[in-house]
Amino acid sequence: MADIEIDGAPADPARLAALGLLNYGHFTTLRVEAGGVRGLALHLDRLERDCRALFAAELDRAAVRERIRAVLPADGAPVIVRVTVYDPALGLERPSAPAAPALLVTTRPAPAAEPGPLRVRTVAYRRELPEVKHTGLFGLVHHRRQAQLAGFDDVLLTEADGLVVEGATWNVGFLDGDRLVRPEGPSLPGVTEALLAGAYRGPQTRRPVRRDELGGYQAAFAVNAGAGLRPLAAVDGTAFDTAHPLLAELRAAYRGVAAEPV
């Protein structure tokens, strides 16, 4: 099994360098366990949608699944698979040229199923094309690095006016009593967020959440495909209950989502 493949072959250095030099592409990240993925169809939908948005090209869903299957460990151990779509031949001078996107597939060991709580700080920052999961990660990594150097674990992104939108590489949710609140704003439509919203049977809503109103919520959490649901211990100086009983209920609801075979 190759750790890095491009269109099913071991990554050629020249084709791989093209992504680093231009950094124009999109991706999705999946947690694969025993050959199954929660929300696989949604991940494939995202890849198709973003491929049209960035390259005006159609993506072969069957080819994506084939490439994922090819890199999975034989023993079914959990891994994180990232599928990146980019065109190795696209150049800086003429990015409008007709695109022929390639599939870059990488794997890494999956993190713990229940990682500990996060302490995050807010930063006013909006990703370019926030609705697309693209490879332009400089701003996110820079702000995460600065937060970690200051003693935090990560960052929660807001608009300039304090509207809370999303985490650096995760969606965020808040608990208002027994109600699940997802913030409105320009953010990435998360697969794990969508699965959780569909699986949870309690009251929930989507509404604006402002930084200066966070003290009105009892608990908060981050969600993404790699780690599932992870409580937030604090945002800036606002502490949250990491043992709130609804967090366990939400985690159980997500765990109950059936995995789709790759």
Summarize the structure.
The protein is α+β, with helices and mostly antiparallel strands and 262 residues long. The protein is built from 6 helices and 16 strands. The mean pLDDT is 95.
Explain what this protein looks like in three dimensions.
This protein is α+β, with helices and mostly antiparallel strands and 262 residues long. Helix content is 26%, strand content 31%. It is built from 6 helices and 16 strands. It has helices spanning 13-22, 40-55, 61-71, 138-149, 191-199, 245-255, and strands at 4-6, 9-10, 25-32, 36-38, 79-86, 102-109, 118-124, 154-158, 164-167, 171-176, 179-183, 204-207, 219-224, 228-235, 238-239, 259-261. Strands 7, 8, 9, 10, 11, 12, 13, 14 and 15 form a 9-stranded mixed sheet that branches. Strand 1 (4-6) and strand 2 (9-10) form a beta hairpin. The longest helix is centred in the first third of the chain and has 16 residues, at 40-55. The chain is globular.
